[in-house]
Amino acid sequence: MNSLLHFFSKAQLSFNNLLRISVFIVMVWIGGLKVFPYEADGIVPFVANSPVMSFFYNKQAPEYQDYKNPEGRTSKVNSQWHKENGTYTFSNALGMVIISIGIVTLLGIWFPKTGFAGGLLTVGMSIVTLSFLITTPEVYVPNLGGDYPTPDYGFPYLSGAGRLVLKDVIMLAAGLVISSDAASRILAKENRRSL
Predict the structure, then answer these.
(1) Helical spans, DSSP H, in the chain
(2) What is the mean pLDDT of each run of 10 residues along the chain (195 residues)?
(3) Residues with Cβ < 8 Å from 38, sequence gap 6 or more?
(4) What is the pLDDT, as a whole number, of residue 164?
C-alpha cells in the first residue's frame, strides 16, 4: 500500500498535465462542434435565456421554442429563423473562444503563465455555463402531464440539458487545480531566480 501512495504522490505533476490534456480534448471537441448547425441549435435555450449572453441573438426568448431543430432532424423554416437570429454566427465565434481556451490550457504543460490564464478562463467559462442552471427553464424536467399526476418535475429533477450543464462543476474544479498548479510552478521559478 505504501508503494502505491508513493507512486500517486510522485505522479502529481503528470496527473495535472493529464488534467490539462483532458480539458484540451473537451474544449477542442465541444468548440469544434459549434460550427455544425445541430450544436448551434442546441445551445439556443441557454444563450437566449442568459442575462449575460442573450444580447448576442437578434430575437428574444422564448420565441426560439417555436423553431427548435431536434438533433437528427432539420427544418428549412427553423434553420432560416436561426440564421436571422444570429445563432450560427454566434456559435462559430463561441466555438473559436472555447477552442482557444483549450489550447491555452494545454500550453500550461510547458508555459506555466499561459496555463494559469487557461485555468482561470476554464473557471470563468464554467461559471457562465453553471449559471444556466438558474436561467434556462429547459435544464429541469417539465411537467408534460399524463394519465396520472407526474411527481418528478421541476427543481431538482435535471433534464438531459441540465445533466450536461451540471458536469461543468468538474470543469470548474479542473480549472482551479490547473491554475493552482501553474501558480505553484510560477512561484517556484521566481524563488529559484531570487536565490
Answers:
(1) 2-10, 12-33, 37-42, 44-49, 76-85, 87-107, 112-135, 160-166, 168-194
(2) 88 94 98 96 96 96 94 93 97 98 98 98 98 96 86 92 96 98 95 87
(3) 69, 71, 72, 74
(4) 93
The pLDDT of residue 149 is 81
| CB-side neighbour CA atoms (13 Å) of 152 | 3
| Separation of alpha carbons 166 and 130, rounded Å | 7
CA gap 124, 53 in Å, rounded: 14
DSSP type of residue 90: H
- What's the gap between Cα 139 and its chain centre? 14
Look at residue 35 in the predicted model and tell me its pLDDT. 97
Question: Running DSSP on this structure, what letter comes out for residue 71?
Answer: T
Instruction: Find the helix packing angle between 112-135 and 87-107, rounded to 10°.
Output: 140
SS3 157: coil
Could you give the C-alpha distances from 147 to 144, 151, 180, in angstroms and in order? 10, 12, 53
Chain centre distance of CA 127:
9
- pTM for this one? 0.92
Q: Which of 67, 52, 22 shows the shortest CA–CA distance to 175? A: 22
CA quadruple 165, 120, 37, 56: dihedral, nearest 10:
100
Residue 148: the pLDDT is 85
pLDDT at 135: 97
Q: Cα(46)–Cα(53) distance, rounded to whole angstroms? A: 9
Alpha-carbon distance of 100 to 130, in angstroms, equals: 20
